[in-house]
């Protein structure tokens, strides 16, 4: 297990302390923290997310997930996001909110744990939510040197469920996606698209085409290792010894294939320098025909479909190399992405623990993290009635599906 790297850089402590503290305090105004709604007690928890790109407004009247959380837990949320500088300001002035989320590898996590500013969770769960389904392996993986467990991780894949008996597995982001509406016009089938020759024919067919007045980009998302893995490259031998990917025949085959596409103008030079945000904009605009890597399409393909229901960018599997080997794909990081900690000074400790217990339950993961599609929301993927992975409490708040107009309060 390892951290999800490269998302954000840890900033220096106490940078722009005054401005940061003012911004954070303004976002968490003082006032009534408990309320009564239809004779049901509710509390409002303050939650700081140390990610300046994250934005989330709590609104049970507009979002299905928020309404579900409020119904099941009695918790409302005041969510504020910012960088690590803002978090440092909260730490330095002893102004922590009830919940704090940050990158799992951020040094602020250990600062909070070692200083006693956040609560040790094990005894609290034993008292308030003894049946919570948080994996024991997560507790051990994030256990502090002092023996305490303080952090609940998102996107954690534990051996309790990733095993043959349970049926869980690690997922990969090394996938390909294609505009199926445009693919139909090329005369190339989805099965043929999984071969190098078939893909080349499809890319050549769309080269120079336009969509909504913009030139179609035949291929985007090149990453040599990903294509080499799709060709069946292994990074260890039968005895478990490391194999350098640069010395494997599939790596050379991938380089030659990528060079061929580049020489034919099927890959743009911009593909090697564009940011993920730029690529998402291209997917949303319908410019990209074939794209490798889930991170390059994500929710952008849903935006595209919302603009044009016929413009579908669908999963296209993996390519096969000359030897026809089965793809050998890297899994996503299994040890967690973000972690959420609980302030030791929260006056709502029982509510916080019960809230976390719900959000990490199977019901919470499925019902509180819907997606919106034609007024119908869907839960996270299940197989044989079992959840195959552990998104954790942060996943359920990534976005909220809108409630259909006729069902709004």
Task: Explain what the structure shows.
The protein has helices at residues 17-27, 64-73, 84-92, 107-115, 121-128, 136-141, 180-186, 196-206, 224-230, 249-263, 276-284, 300-307, 349-359, 362-367; strands at 34-37, 40-49, 75-81, 99-103, 152-153, 176-179, 210-211, 214-215, 217-220, 288-292, 313-315, 338-342, 371-373, 376-378, 382-383, 386-387. The protein starts with 16 loop residues before the first helix and ends in a 22-residue tail after the last strand. Mean pLDDT is 82; it is low at 1-39 and 370-409. Strand 15 and strand 16 form a beta hairpin. The protein has 2 domains: 17-164 and 334-407, Periplasmic binding protein-like II (D-Maltodextrin-Binding Protein, domain 2, 3-Layer(aba) Sandwich), CATH 3.40.190; 176-315, D-Maltodextrin-Binding Protein, domain 2 (3-Layer(aba) Sandwich), CATH 3.40.190.10. Helix 5 crosses helix 13 (349-359) and helix 11 (276-284) runs parallel beside helix 12 (300-307). The chain is α+β, with helices and mostly antiparallel strands and 409 residues long. It is globular and about 65 Å long. The strands form 5 sheets. Strands 1, 2, 3, 4, 5 and 12 form a 6-stranded mixed β-sheet that branches. Strands 9-10-6-11 form a 4-stranded mixed β-sheet, sandwiched between helices. Strands 7-8 form a two-stranded antiparallel sheet.
């Amino acid at each position: 297990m390892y951290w999800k790297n490269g998302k954000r850089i840890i900033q220096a402590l106490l940078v722009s302390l005054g401005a940061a503290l003012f911004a954070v305090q303004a976002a968490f105004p003082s006032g009534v923290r408990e309320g009564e709604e239809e004779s049901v007690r509710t509390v409002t928890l303050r939650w700081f997310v140390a990610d300046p790109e994250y934005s989330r407004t709590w609104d049970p009247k507009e979002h299905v997930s928020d309404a579900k959380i409020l119904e099941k837990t009695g918790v409302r949320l005041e969510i504020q996001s910012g960088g690590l500088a803002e978090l440092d300001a909260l730490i330095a002035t002893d102004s922590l909110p009830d919940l704090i989320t940050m990158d799992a590898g951020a040094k602020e996590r250990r600062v909070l744990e070692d200083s006693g500013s956040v609560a040790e969770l094990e005894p609290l769960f034993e008292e308030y939510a003894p049946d919570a389904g948080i994996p024991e392996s997560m507790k051990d993986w994030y256990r502090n040197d002092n023996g305490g467990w303080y952090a609940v991780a998102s996107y954690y894949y534990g051996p309790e469920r990733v095993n043959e008996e349970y049926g869980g597995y690690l997922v990969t982001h090394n996938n390909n996606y294609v505009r199926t509406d445009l693919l139909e016009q090329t005369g190339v089938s989805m099965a043929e698209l999984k071969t190098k020759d078939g893909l080349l024919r499809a890319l050549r067919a769309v080269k120079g085409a336009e969509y909504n007045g913009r030139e179609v980009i035949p291929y985007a998302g090149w990453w040599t290792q990903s294509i080499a893995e799709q060709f069946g490259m292994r990074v260890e031998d039968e005895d478990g010894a490391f194999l350098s990917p640069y010395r494997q025949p599939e790596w050379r085959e991938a380089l030659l294939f990528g060079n061929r596409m580049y020489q034919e103008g099927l890959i743009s030079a911009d593909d090697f320098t564009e940011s993920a945000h730029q690529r998402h904009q291209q997917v949303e605009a319908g410019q990209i025909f074939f794209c490798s890597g889930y991170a390059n399409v994500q929710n952008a393909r849903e935006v595209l479909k919302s603009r044009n229901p016929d413009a579908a960018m669908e999963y296209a599997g993996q390519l096969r190399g000359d030897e026809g080997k089965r793809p050998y794909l890297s899994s996503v990081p299994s040890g967690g992405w973000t972690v959420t900690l609980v302030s030791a000074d929260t006056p709502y400790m029982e509510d916080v623990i019960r809230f976390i217990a719900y959000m990490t339950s199977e019901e919470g993961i499925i019902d509180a993290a819907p997606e919106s599609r034609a007024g119908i929301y869907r839960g996270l993927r299940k197989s044989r009635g079992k959840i195959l992975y552990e998104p954790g409490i942060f996943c359920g708040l990534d976005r909220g599906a809108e409630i259909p107009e006729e069902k709004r309060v």
